[in-house]
Amino acid sequence: MSEQIVKRVVIAGGGTAGWVAAAALVKQLGPLLDITLVESDEIGTVGVGESTIPTSRSFHDLLTINEQAFMRATQATFKLGISFENWGKPGDRYIHSFGEIGKRSTWMADFHHFWLHAQARGFGGSLADYCFELQASQAGKFAKAEGVPINYAYHLDATLYARFLRGLAEPAGVRRVEGKIAQVEQHPETGFLTALVLASGTRVEGDLFLDCTGFRGLLIEQTLETGYDDWTRYLATNSAIAVQTRSVGPAIPLTRAIAHQAGWRWRIPLQHRVGNGIVYCSDFLSDDEAQAQLLGDVEGEVLTEPRVIRYQTGARRQVWNKNCVALGLASGFIEPLESTSIHLVKVAITRLIQEFPFGGCSEALAARFNAQSRYEIEGIRDFITLHYHLTQRDDSPFWDRCRTMEIPDSLAQRMALFRDAAQAYKEGNDLFRVDSWVQVLLGQGLAPRSYHQLARMMDADTLAGALATLKSNIDTAVARMPSHQDFLAQYCPAGDA
Ligand SMILES: Cc1cc2nc3c(=O)[nH]c(=O)nc-3n(C[C@H](O)[C@H](O)[C@H](O)COP(=O)(O)OP(=O)(O)OC[C@H]3O[C@@H](n4cnc5c(N)ncnc54)[C@H](O)[C@@H]3O)c2cc1C
């Protein structure tokens, strides 16, 4: 029997990252570990992060979370995609939906090639016509039924989500310690972390430390000086202002991402309120201007004081350093355009459980974990950079910069492939599917020069008939669905917060 060297896990920080980590660890490895979470009410959490992607569902399955209970507790709504407005050029709109476009077939070419062929022949309508989730979201509808596949995520209240996860983790055995971490102790020779010392003098010793302290990276950066790769040259925004408003209409199952002259604005509908925010680059828009613009654009009574949040887009050089693993904002941050941050926390903690260093933290384990994490975050960086770079907007210095900036080679190659041959791909552990790339590439205005000629082997009448049937099946299914608001009211009503 090999010896278990790592048993005491200390989680520094109790935001979404800290409590996601605590809930997952105790659920999967509880009897093998002694888990302590330290958080400070005085410091508080970042308080945003309310839009998710479908991987949240599989993570919740892992934790055997009851969906209705979770949605009631967090005032959650369903999300079928993101509505991108004014991105390609002012007045444009497209939806990046979570749904599958067209029909999965055994053909050697993806559905969009057939659609492109139909377009070339003058029929086929919009690509959006062939996506069930997209059509449902546009109609403001939602339903779940046995045997009817629908791919969705959630909008949720970030504070209530952390509280909900805490409610799972504490009874399952996670010890919570309230207090401000004043000092981090290290082994004098190895530099490994040994204990957190709180302002009260309490020492919390551990074998493995998870840094979930947010942007400050108290362990991974302030103590271990790991280093950070700055990606501002690709993703220029560095500031956000968040504000909550009272709902003025039914909740739609879409996050709205509305571009403005120096960034974009989000709108996230929850059951009890709406989360809003403006994301911008402070070189091009002052905080006062951004706040005035946000408050001028939101609908409904403003419920909270607007709050400025600064960030630097980039990634920690190593997310696992010695016996410290950084999760959440402490590990890096890609701005929130595709709502990927909470997803990254969930993937990282799942991976840590799979690769848990029971026999001690080794360089080999850390190297593997770091390589996987880097691959994932670079893929997300590329996908989000695409939204800024592939634009015809020339109405402000910000968009001029985005349109003409240098982009990563990996993204340039993807764009060239689509431009030349309408090819898009998903490799290995890539997060974004072919349909995601296609929706954004076309939505932002990239017209491919050619496409796979397989579609020509189908005569025009057969292709037109197949497309018409697909569209009419989707239209019929959407027409039968209840409104998203009505579905929420019967499935998971949360009442007032
Ligand atoms: C503007 C913006 C919008 C976003 N939108 C989305 C979105 O739509 N979807 C999405 O997936 N993600 C989004 N994110 C990211 C998301 O908010 C975070 O990934 C998520 O909230 C996790 O944050 P965290 O737990 O790492 O950090 P935090 O919430 O900052 O938590 C840090 C914790 O560490 C504790 N702490 C810090 N220092 C100390 C100390 N000295 N002693 C004790 N405790 C300490 C704090 O008290 C707190 O509990 C957004 C982020 C920003 C900035």
TrEMBL record:
Cross-referenced Pfam families: Trp_halogenase
InterPro entries (alphabetical): FAD/NAD-bd_sf, Flavin-dep_Halogenase_NPB, Flavin_halogenase, Trp_halogen
Coiled-coil regions listed in the entry: none
Gene3D superfamilies: FAD/NAD(P)-binding domain
PANTHER family recorded: FAD-BINDING PROTEIN, FLAVIN-DEPENDENT TRYPTOPHAN HALOGENASE
Protein name: Tryptophan halogenase family protein
Source lineage: Bacteria, Pseudomonadati, Pseudomonadota, Alphaproteobacteria, Sphingomonadales
